[in-house]
Amino acid sequence: MAKPKTPPDIATLPRAANAPQRKVFVRGLKLDVFIGVYDSEQGAAQPVRIDLELDVIEPSDPVGDRLEDVLCYNKLTQGVKAIIAEGHIKLVETLAERIADLALSHPMALAVRVRIEKPNAIDEADAAGVEIQRTKR
User: Fold this and answer.
1) What is the end-to-end Cα distance of the chain in Å, rounded?
2) Would you say residue 5 lies in a domain?
3) Nearest-angstrom CA–CA distance, 85 and 121
4) Range of the domain at 97
5) The whole model's pTM is what?
6) What is the CATH classification number for the domain harbouring 59?
7) d(CA 96, CA 114)
8) In this structure, is the dihedral angle defined by the CA atoms of residues 27, 30, 31 and 35, taken in order, positive or negative?
9) In the predicted model, is pLDDT for residue 10 greater than 50?
């Protein structure tokens, strides 16, 4: 005789999209990236700074103190590093879109803002880059 399935713990399931939300962020992530379209940017990594800010649904037990109930910013950062490890990317816009797709793949993520800065792109500027905002549809 088949064993009855145990229903999921309601406390660990995310609530509806109209439930309370929180922001999860990573600011100033500094990584060396093979990125750029110009000849001078080929074959050598250059520094980038990445800021991520996500709107996420709170779990039904927001003080449950369980890692599995949240969007883990460490796993998100590891995912960004994995994207970068795939190889040379021509445009910061492409990198931003790939990071946004990664972030929105989490079931609790509703929206993401990704900002990528290349501090060495323009000698006379602190940085140049792109910022995008994406939401789940």
Assistant:
1) 42
2) no
3) 21
4) 12-135
5) 0.84
6) 3.30.1130.10
7) 6
8) positive
9) no
